[in-house]
Structures are given as C-alpha cells and as structure tokens.
Amino acid sequence: MSETSPQVRPQVVLGVSGGIAAYKACELLRRFTESGHQVTVVPTAAALHFVGEATWAALSGRPAATETWDRVHEVPHVRIGQGADLVVVAPATADLLAKAAHGMADDLLTNTLLTARCPVVFAPAMHTEMWEHPATQENVATLRRRGAVVLEPAVGRLTGKDTGKGRLPDPDAIFAACRRVLARGAGAADLAGRHVVVSAGGTREALDPVRFLGNRSSGKQGYALAVTAAARGARVTLLAANVELPDPAGVDVVRVTSALELREAAVKAAADADVVVMAAAVADFRPAVYAAGKIKKVEGEEPAPVALVRNPDILAELSAHRTHPSQLVVGFAAETDRVLENGRAKLARKGCDLLVVNEVGEDKVFGTDSNEAVLLAADGAEVPVPLGSKEQLADLVWDQVAARFGTRPLTD
C-alpha cells in the first residue's frame, strides 16, 4: 500500500493493552499518522499505567478513547469498531487475547473488537512461558480460525533479564504488515488458521572449514512469500538458509545451512502444515568428503578433483510423503534455457501441486527486488506473472493456493 493521501484517510483503531511494550505502540502510532491514516487510540486501563492518555492524544491528534461511558450519546462501544477500516492491537497481552477469543466485552477495547467488521491484527507481547502456555496457543488458534491476523512475537530481550520468544515485533514491521492487510481489504485473511511453511535462501555445502559450494540466492522471494502469508492471516514458519535479511514480523524463523539441515527442518515443520512452499535454492550435490582442515594449495601440483554426492530431493520427498491428504506443496524452478519445457518436466517429476518457474541469469531474479514467472499447476493451469515486485508474485502464489484450498479442512 502506498503512502495514503489526506483525502483517503483510512480509519485505524489502535488498541493498546497493558504490557511493558505499550511504549513501543507510540512509534507505531506515529507511523500511521505520518502516512495519512486517521487513528483512534483505545488503551485499556492497564495500558494507561504505562503510557498516559495525554500522550496518545498528542501523538494521534485526537482524544484517546478510554471509557465505555464517555460520550454515551455517540455509543462509542459500537461506533468505534463499526467505522474502522483496520483494528490493530499492539501490544496484545495474554489476557487481551483470551478475552478476544472468548468474546468477552468488559471494556471499550474488547467491545470494539466485537463490533469491528474490518480486518483485525494482533501483535502479541508477553513472557515466553505465557506465549507457549496451551491456553494462549488455543486462544491464538481460535482467533486465526475466525480470520484475525495474529503475528508471531519476536525473539529477544523481555522484561528484566529474561530473553526468549514473546517480544513485540518491531513497530516498523508491524506497520508494514498492517499496510498489506489494509491494501487487501475485505477477505484479507484468506489464509487465516492455516500453517504455512516457506523455505528461502540458498544452501551451502561445506568442503572444508572455510570453503563451501553455494549459490547466489538472496532469499528475497522466500521472505516475500513469508511476509505476505503472515499478512493474509497464516501462521508462518520460515526456513532461512544463509539469508542476510531482517526477520519478518510475525514469522517463526528457523535457520539452516546445508541441504541436509533444510531437509530435517522441512520434514519437521511440514508435520502440521497446510502448505509447504520450497522457494530456497537447494544444492543438488555436496562434497563426498569434508576436509577437517583447510585444503592447502601445493606449489607445482594441480588440486585433487572434488568428488560429489547427491543431496536429497526435498521437494519430491515432501510431495510423495504428505502428512495429510489436503496438504499442498509448491515448488520453485530456476531455469536458464527452455524454461517452460524444463518447468513442465520438473512439475511432473517432483509431484507437487504448483511450480513457480522463472528464468535466471547474470542480472535476473537473484538478489533483485523484482521477478517474473509462470505458475504451472498439476491440473494443467498455467498463469503467467509479468515483471513486478517479489511481493506481487508472492501474493499471486497465495491467490492460487487459497483457490485450491477451497473447502479443504484446517490441519488443527
């Protein structure tokens, strides 16, 4: 979504619940107001212990809505949610998630959540133990099934000396996710309740402690698939192979190096996944022997040949051994010649549902911010994707996936 003109003025409700991360919502509010959104801040009573009403009013340019009984003639507990284009709650505490999941309405924010008919985004923040508790996980799953976008919390420093998963995602990253949700509008969360696994980057196969066989994949396309899936309501696991990009907001990131590590992570993550998208560039071969010490150059002698062995075909394995009948598998094929011919042959050989085929070369695809491709489907459909951003391609992939889900059951 581009920067919004004052004439459009999307109506955003920023809910703030009572966690120490409430102060970070000030930066999120600033990003919304500076990009032309009209924001109504609805803090809970607990949130006001961390950031006062005057601060919210000053930053938003509007009175903060704090009490159900203020301006009763305007029926604020109904009107605020009804008039919103987006509701985002940041931070969303375990208590707030529980109330939202169970339809409780004991304050203005929870009333607003019940009356909103627009997309709703939750950015959780809490201690690791609270996030991992089965009650919280069930509440999150319930909200996702209903169509809410619940971002995964980040990993990092928490309150006091604690470190772990539960940190509020970066405000800029939350804002970027919200822009994607706003841009899609109604039906934005068409992947709600689904678990999506995406691989990204390129594997490295060690030759010795300092050398490896690798490729030029930057991981940008895989990351674009992850962030767009999260904005469409999915729970996303991103398998990142040697990627030097910041972690996307609301995504679980698992870091791997080699093809064998990626295979192990992919098989594990696919166990309860609704769709697996293998966008990583996986090395076909690895050195047969790993040298424990650096291979030295010997004057006057030619280097010894490097024997290679095949790596496992992860895409074919995942396609052949799906963990449940409704699971979808999507592959990527980077070709340098006879692109469609090779792509169709690969689709048949791998056994996946969709194959994204693109032409690669010296200045094509790898490391760039744009991509063009053809989406080949096992049912014979072929969808050309013109040159555009990698996020645009990612959204078209998810459009095809969502269409094929149809009435397929959720895995959880």
UniProtKB/TrEMBL annotation:
Q: Which reaction does it catalyse?
A: (R)-4'-phosphopantothenate + L-cysteine + CTP = N-[(R)-4-phosphopantothenoyl]-L-cysteine + CMP + diphosphate + H(+); N-[(R)-4-phosphopantothenoyl]-L-cysteine + H(+) = (R)-4'-phosphopantetheine + CO2
Could you name the Gene Ontology cellular component terms for this entry?
phosphopantothenoylcysteine decarboxylase complex
GO MF, one term, reads:
phosphopantothenate--cysteine ligase activity
Give the region (Phosphopantothenate--cysteine ligase) as residue ranges: 196-412
Offer one example of a GO biological process linked to this entry.
pantothenate catabolic process
| Occurrences of domain DNA/pantothenate metabolism flavoprotein C-terminal (ranges) | 191-403
Record domain Flavoprotein: where: 11-178
Needed co-factor(s)? Mg(2+); FMN
- Enzyme Commission designation: 4.1.1.36, 6.3.2.5
Q: Name one Pfam family in it.
A: DFP
What InterPro entries does its record include?
CoaB-like_sf, CoaBC, DNA/pantothenate-metab_flavo_C, Flavin_trans-like, Flavoprotein
Relay the cofactor remark from the entry. Binds 1 FMN per subunit.
Record key words, sorted: Decarboxylase, Flavoprotein, FMN, Ligase, Lyase, Magnesium, Metal-binding, Multifunctional enzyme
Q: Which residues bind CTP?
A: 284, 294, 312-315, 332, 346, 350
Q: Where is this region: Phosphopantothenoylcysteine decarboxylase?
A: 1-195
Q: In which pathway does it act?
A: Cofactor biosynthesis; coenzyme A biosynthesis; CoA from (R)-pantothenate: step 3/5; Cofactor biosynthesis; coenzyme A biosynthesis; CoA from (R)-pantothenate: step 2/5
Q: Which family does it belong to?
A: In the N-terminal section; belongs to the HFCD (homo-oligomeric flavin containing Cys decarboxylase) superfamily. In the C-terminal section; belongs to the PPC synthetase family.
Q: What does this protein do?
A: Catalyzes two sequential steps in the biosynthesis of coenzyme A. In the first step cysteine is conjugated to 4'-phosphopantothenate to form 4-phosphopantothenoylcysteine. In the second step the latter compound is decarboxylated to form 4'-phosphopantotheine.
NCBIfam families (alphabetical): coaBC_dfp
What protein name is recorded for this chain?
A: Coenzyme A biosynthesis bifunctional protein CoaBC
Q: Which organism is it from?
A: Kitasatospora viridis
